[in-house]
């Protein structure tokens, strides 16, 4: 770093995104992207919007906000569109965390949470998951801290019920609870229906996973009107034009084609079930994933070793170095053909070890 870099960031360790190699063709099962292209309606809408890129986009995202609100059964003033769900999560750290309202989240979860806390100089606590990688609901009762829960969790894939989230909300009435639902469309239970019952609930979702728009960067937050006003204050104090015109148009196109999204989700779930059975037959232990990935370990293959062997054969998966999960790998669910190649390759690796 340069000698001009602020000392307040001297110990900041940035988030490490999944590998995006350019040196060769890989079967990419490492970043939880959709194996399906965006809806044709999304592509057509984005192309049309490209013809007017000389103009600023609508800072209020009115049409897209109304479409998201209609999809969720809420009011437009209960929705805020952002540049990926990462932005709304960062807004939440900025708006609801400080020295008197520390952040709290699991020790094994989305890796951006501690980064957001550190860059915003927010004190935070990491609560250990249970031995089976589940979140202990009792650990989050009456904390009087700003709570962040990815549900389903990543990288474990395990989900909490809406009733469990409601217990946490009830016991923390004076602090905000942020429920990150990036993977909810693959088998989780959304907490959006609770936003009017609990004024301390903020739900975040994304277009990156189930809606095949990871490259467009589009997410949103849902909460009561006052929370959304708070977050709009942050937005308009940082980047009012946070969503570009092509992304906005693609989002509208995607929402106009719900059958396409639903069919893709069903296929991912089917491929997840196929992959789970196949890996279990090979001796793997997997968590009960309700996401577009599986989280797996094998007694004969240390996590890092399997990751490296698969990479050498053209398949990328995600390995984490945290000691608790170092023996596991997160494997994105791709097309059936991709998952069959994965299973075949792992089978060959196991044969080689004999």
Give a description of the structure:
With 354 residues, the chain is of the alpha/beta class. The protein folds into 2 domains: 21-36 and 259-353, Aspartate Aminotransferase, domain 1, CATH 3.90.1150; 40-256, Type I PLP-dependent aspartate aminotransferase-like (Major domain) (Aspartate Aminotransferase, domain 2), CATH 3.40.640. The chain has 10 helices and 13 strands. It has a 7-stranded mixed β-sheet with strand order 2-8-7-6-5-3-4, sandwiched between helices. Strands 9-10-13-12 form a 4-stranded antiparallel β-sheet, covered by helices on one side. Strands 1-11 form a two-stranded parallel ribbon. A hairpin with a 6-residue loop joins strand 9 and strand 10 (293-297). The mean pLDDT is 96.
What keyword list fits this structure?
single chain; 354 residues; alpha/beta; Aspartate Aminotransferase, domain 1; Aspartate Aminotransferase, domain 2; seven-stranded mixed beta sheet; 10 helices; 36% helix; globular
Element layout with pairings:
Elements: E1 27-28, H1 40-49, H2 62-72, E2 79-82, H3 84-96, E3 103-106, H4 112-119, E4 124-127, E5 146-150, H5 162-171, E6 177-180, E7 201-206, E8 219-223, H6 225-236, H7 245-255, H8 258-281, E9 285-286, E10 293-297, H9 303-312, E11 315-316, E12 318-319, E13 328-332, H10 336-353
Parallel strand pairs: 1-11, 3-4, 3-5, 5-6, 6-7
Antiparallel strand pairs: 2-8, 7-8, 9-10, 10-13, 12-13
């Amino acid at each position: 770093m340069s000698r001009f870099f602020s000392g307040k960031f001297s110990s900041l360790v940035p988030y490490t995104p999944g590998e995006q190699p350019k040196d060769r063709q890989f079967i990419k099962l490492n970043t939880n992207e959709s194996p399906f292209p965006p809806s044709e309606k999304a592509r057509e809408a984005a192309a049309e919007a490209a013809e007017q890129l000389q103009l600023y986009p609508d800072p209020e995202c009115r049409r897209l906000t109304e479409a998201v609100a209609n999809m969720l059964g809420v009011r437009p003033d209960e929705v805020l569109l952002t540049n990926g769900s990462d932005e709304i999560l960062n807004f939440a750290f900025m708006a609801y965390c400080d020295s008197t309202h520390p952040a709290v989240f699991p020790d094994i979860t989305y890796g951006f949470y501690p980064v957001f806390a550190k860059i915003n100089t927010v004190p935070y606590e990491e609560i250990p998951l249970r031995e089976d990688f589940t979140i202990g609901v009792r650990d989050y009762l009456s904390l009087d801290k700003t709570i962040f829960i990815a549900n389903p969790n990543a990288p474990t894939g395990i989900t909490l019920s809406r009733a469990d989230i409601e217990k946490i909300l009830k016991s923390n009435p004076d602090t905000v609870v942020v429920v990150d639902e990036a993977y909810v469309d693959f088998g989780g239970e959304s907490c959006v229906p609770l936003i009017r019952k609990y004024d301390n609930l903020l739900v975040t979702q994304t277009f990156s996973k189930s809606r095949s728009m990871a490259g467009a960067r589009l997410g949103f937050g849902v909460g009561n009107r006052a929370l959304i006003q708070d977050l709009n204050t942050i937005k308009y104090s940082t980047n009012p034009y946070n969503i570009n015109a092509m992304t906005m148009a693609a989002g509208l196109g995607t929402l106009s084609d719900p059958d396409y999204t639903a069919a893709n989700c069903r296929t991912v779930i089917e491929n997840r079930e196929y992959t789970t059975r196949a890996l279990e037959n090979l001796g793997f232990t997997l968590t009960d994933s309700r996401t577009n990935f599986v989280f797996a370990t094998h007694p004969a293959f240390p996590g890092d070793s399997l990751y490296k062997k698969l990479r050498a054969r053209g398949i990328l998966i995600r390995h984490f170095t945290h000691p608790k999960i170092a023996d596991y790998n997160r494997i994105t669910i791709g097309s059936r053909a991709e998952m069959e190649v994965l299973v075949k390759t792992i089978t060959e690796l196991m044969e080689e070890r004999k």
